[in-house]
Structures are given as structure tokens and as C-alpha cells.
């Protein structure tokens, strides 16, 4: 029932920057079947390093008997443009030259990513979306889309995200890109260029994805006798290695820049006016201890959107709690449907 597909867009695609891509492809995953009324669509937007297989990184939400059940819903998620899981990105061959884009891949924004989703949606003939869900960068994209197409979405669920990427978030991303830049291989046009720098970038990022409390609870030494070779140190190294086995520095660079450029108010006369466009019933969930997308950012969103609720998940994990606190997140979404008297389950 879980199926992978490819959408090819063979025409020139204009980016927000004014630059163009000579077409693109999106690799996407679906789970379940579209019903006759075409009203059972659940669209998921993935975060920075995740992929279109939502059952891998949000396993508790999707499956038979779960909140989003493939016997009732048609769940879809596309790998974002610029990524490295099958959609067009910096390692894809540039049809204009026949060799991978590498450093020549143009800068993209969340709005560009959403425009590719919109082309896919049209191609599939989906003219209503029951619920769109996204966390972190995926939440930024879900928000962009519900602003751009207010009549398309019935419900919007956003976790640990924001209306505009914060100065703090940009500073973290820039520091990570500086680490990539320091890697002497970064200038090369090879798949592994900048990979050691990216390992450091991931280690830096982890400091913003977790919290003081997380490290305290999971990486503290058990004895007073240690004076080198700390658990916290090997954890940082390991996390860099782990990402390097499934990602590349070009995509890391492009997507972190896309995140930095996130501002729903751009060319829409400001954030407040942009958020007023949203017609969907909205749920914003913040994660306690999230230093990267602090709960005040989700509270702000809820305040500026009609029909919005705001909840906080108590967590010791910080930002990554949006991927880890599955049962608490499921409860919040169930409650949202119940309070709004909405039917999450369609038959
Ligand atoms: C569910 C998935 O991970 S799907 C895989 C793709 N992931 C995605 O697409 C979404 C993004 N995912 C993520 O960001 C992360 O996977 C999270 C947030 C979901 C979970 O993070 P994790 O890194 O798995 O958890 P955590 O921080 O507890 O680290 C555990 C790993 O660190 C290792 N580790 C823990 N402490 C130490 C230490 N002191 N020194 C070295 N290694 C350590 C563990 O052995 C474990 O290794 P493993 O992942 O190879 O089993
Ligand atoms: N752990 C998340 C963090 C960004 O939200 C990821 O790697 O995508």
C-alpha cells in the first residue's frame, strides 16, 4: 500500500529569485487510495534531512488502526526540491550540461518548494486536501501553501515551526555553512565535497535540536574520574558521521539557505496580512525546551490565524521532540479534531 512514484515536470521552472531550472522531478510516496469523493487526502511535508517516507520518521501517526489509516486516507508526501532522496537537487544531472549541478544549483526558497508541490497536486487532480501536516521546515512549507491556496485545505497541523525564520535560526545555519566552507574539499565538484564540514555542521545543529536537559540526561558521565573521551564528545562525532552516511553537503547548504529565507510576509505586505489569508482550521504545536523554534513562535502563529489552536508538548528533547514525542503529538491532533468536531477518519 505504501508506494513510491516519480513526477516529471519537463518545462522550465521559474524560481522566486528569477533564476530557472530546466524542469524538475519529484519523488513522492503515497499510502492508501484516493476515495471516490477525493476528500480523504492527507499531505505531509517533511523536515530538513527527512524524506518522503513519513512512516519512517512519524511511524506512530500512519498505519492501519492509527490516526491516519491507509484504509481510509490517501496520504502523500513529496521529497522536497533541492533534497537528495530522488527529487531534483544539486547532485542531479543538469540537463543543460549533462553533469550534476553541484555548486551551480540555484538558490531556492520554501515558496519554490511549494510551487513544485502545487504542480504535482494539479497533475494528480487533487482539488481538496483534508489535512496538511508539517514539522520544522516542513511546517514552514505547509504554512506557505495554506497562505497561497487558502481554499484548498480544510485542516492545517504545524509542529515546531514559524512564520519567519528567526535571526537565531539563521545564525545557527550560517555557522553550520561556515563549517562546510572550512572543508578544503568543498570547492570540488564531487559528491563527497564538503562532507567533513557537513559532519561538523550536523554536530552544531544537534545543539539546537536538543536541549541542555537532553544532554544532561543522556550524555553525562557516570563517574567523576573521566577527564577526556567524554560521552558527549563521541555523541557529537557520531551524529555527524550518521548524517554523512545519508546526506550531502550541497543539499545541506541549499536547504539550510531555503530555511533562512522563510518569511511568509515577503511580497504579501507583511506577516500578519499573510496569515489572515489562511482559512483552514489550524493547530499549532510547540515543543517545550525548543531553542530553535521556541514555543512563542507557534503561539504567535495561532494568535494571527482565525480558527487556530495552540498547544505545547512537554518534552526533554527540545526541537527534535517533534520527531520523538509521537504519542503526545498524536493526542494533540486527536484532541484538535475532536474539539473542532472534525472527522479525522473518513469512510
Ligand atoms: C526515525 C529515523 O531516524 S528515520 C531516519 C531518517 N531520519 C529522518 O529522516 C528524520 C530526521 N531524524 C532525526 O533527526 C533523528 O533520527 C531523530 C531526531 C528522529 C532521532 O535521533 P537519533 O540520532 O536517532 O537519536 P539519539 O540522539 O538518541 O541518538 C541515538 C544514536 O546515537 C548513538 N549514541 C548515543 N550516545 C552516544 C555516544 N555517547 N557516543 C556515540 N554514539 C552515541 C546511539 O547508539 C544511536 O545510534 P544509532 O542511531 O546508530 O542507533
Ligand atoms: N532532526 C531534524 C531537524 C530539523 O528539523 C532533521 O534532521 O530533519
UniProtKB/TrEMBL annotation:
Acyltransferase is among the record's keywords: yes
Regions that span the bilayer: none
Catalytic site positions: 136 (nucleophile), 290, 319
Role according to the record: Transfers an acetyl group from acetyl-CoA to L-homoserine, forming acetyl-L-homoserine.
One Pfam family of this chain: Abhydrolase_1
Complexes and interactors: Homodimer.
EC number of this enzyme: 2.3.1.31
Binding of substrate, residues: 202, 320
Organism name: Splendidivirga corallicola
Keyword tags: Acyltransferase, Amino-acid biosynthesis, Cytoplasm, Methionine biosynthesis, Transferase
Name of the protein this chain belongs to: Homoserine O-acetyltransferase
InterPro entries for the chain: AB_hydrolase_1, AB_hydrolase_fold, HAT_MetX-like
Reaction equations catalysed: L-homoserine + acetyl-CoA = O-acetyl-L-homoserine + CoA
Family stated for the protein in its record: Belongs to the AB hydrolase superfamily. MetX family.
Amino acid at each position: 500500500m505504501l508506494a513510491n512514484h516519480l513526477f516529471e515536470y519537463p518545462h522550465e521552472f521559474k524560481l522566486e529569485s528569477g533564476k530557472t531550472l530546466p524542469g524538475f522531478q519529484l519523488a513522492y510516496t503515497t499510502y492508501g487510495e484516493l476515495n471516490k469523493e477525493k476528500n480523504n487526502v492527507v499531505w505531509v511535508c517533511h523536515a530538513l534531512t527527512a524524506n518522503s517516507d513519513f512512516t519512517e520518521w512519524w511511524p506512530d501517526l500512519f498505519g492501519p488502526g492509527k490516526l491516519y489509516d491507509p484504509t481510509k486516507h490517501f496520504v502523500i508526501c513529496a521529497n522536497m526540491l533541492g533534497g537528495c532522496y530522488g527529487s531534483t537537487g544539486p547532485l542531479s544531472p543538469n540537463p543543460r550540461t549533462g553533469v550534476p549541478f553541484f555548486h551551480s544549483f540555484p538558490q531556492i526558497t520554501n515558496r519554490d518548494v511549494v510551487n513544485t508541490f502545487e504542480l504535482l497536486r494539479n497533475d494528480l487532480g487533487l482539488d481538496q486536501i483534508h489535512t496538511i501536516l508539517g514539522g520544522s521546515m516542513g511546517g514552514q512549507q505547509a504554512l506557505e501553501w495554506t497562505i497561497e491556496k487558502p481554499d484548498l485545505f480544510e485542516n492545517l497541523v504545524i509542529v515546531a515551526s514559524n512564520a519567519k525564520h528567526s535571526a537565531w535560526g539563521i545564525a545557527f545555519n550560517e555557522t553550520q555553512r561556515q563549517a562546510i566552507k572550512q572543508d578544503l574539499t568543498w570547492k570540488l565538484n564531487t559528491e563527497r565535497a564538503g562532507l567533513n564540514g557537513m559532519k561538523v555542521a550536523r554536530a552544531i545543529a544537534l545543539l539546537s535540536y536538543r536541549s541542555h536537559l537532553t544532554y544532561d540526561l543522556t550524555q553525562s558521565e557516570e563517574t567523576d574520574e573521566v577527564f577526556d573521551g567524554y560521552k558527549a564528545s563521541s555523541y557529537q562525532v557520531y551524529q555527524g558521521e550518521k548524517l554523512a552516511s545519508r546526506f550531502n553537503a550541497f543539499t545541506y547548504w541549499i536547504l539550510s539557505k531555503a530555511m533562512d529565507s522563510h518569511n511568509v510576509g515577503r511580497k504579501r505586505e507583511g506577516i500578519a496580512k499573510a496569515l489572515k489569508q489562511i482559512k483552514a482550521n489550524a493547530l499549532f504545536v510547540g515543543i517545550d525546551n525548543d531553542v530553535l523554534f521556541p514555543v512563542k513562535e507557534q503561539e504567535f502563529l495561532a494568535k494571527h490565524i482565525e480558527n487556530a489552536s495552540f498547544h505545547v508538548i512537554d518534552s526533554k528533547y527540545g526541537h527534535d521532540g517533534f520527531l520523538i514525542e509521537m504519542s503526545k503529538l498524536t493526542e494533540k491532533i486527536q484532541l484538535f479534531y475532536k474539539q473542532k468536531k472534525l472527522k479525522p477518519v473518513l469512510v
